[in-house]
Hints:
The protein is an alpha+beta fold. Helix content is 32%, strand content 24%.
Amino acid sequence: MIPTSTAPVTFDASADGLMAFAHHLANTVRPLARRHFRTPLAVSTKADTSPVTEADRGIEARLRAEIRLAYPDHGILGEEEGGDFSRDLTWVIDPIDGTQSFITGMPLFGTLIALVRDGRPLLGLIDMPALAERWHGNGTGAWFGGKPIRTSRRSLREARLFATSPDLFQGTDADAFASLSAAVGMRRFGGDCYAYGLLASGHCDLVVEAGLKVYDVMALAPVVEGAGGVMTDWAGRPLTPDFDGRVVAAANGELHAAALRHLAGFA
């Protein structure tokens, strides 16, 4: 069952305790996202030209306060206030993944929460506030709404491919994505983090993106991999804090290898 209480509670350092705390974080900030969603918002542009709102900043501030209260020795890295991996354990948070969806009234935005040790995530959670849906995983198992999930066994020819936007791909990356797109059964755009949850639940099979940041991916990998999928960079390497922004998430190993072959031809 997914914990739903937001009453004060003590969390320990066990795997179950840390996961319960991740749910507590998501439960705490989901009402904040819903309160701001589809309301007039002042939108600013950050140095990287991406948009940011008071909701992004307010949610991250609340997440940071909760983490510092429960685990003062843990590090925090977030999209809006930065951070690093100098602590043994670091919470990596993205308060609103899909801010463009959020500000345009599209409900496919999420809050991403991960706990990372030695550059690899121990757990990840994808919460969709507007839809009241949630995935969580620990690399060996994954759950949607508290129920176990598994990825698909579809082949490349049958695969359903997602990317947030074609604008992510420039130059040879665009050529690589076009080559892969021509080989699959279906291509769709949009979804941000939601597409990775759909992959973990077996509804789609590939998500390929470029230009991502560490806070965009750390919560996704334990869900995808826990459900039986594979998530790496375009060279097949595990995702670490210094990855190059390019990601391949696949429902199974055979599909992942086939996707990498298409992308490698344009490396």
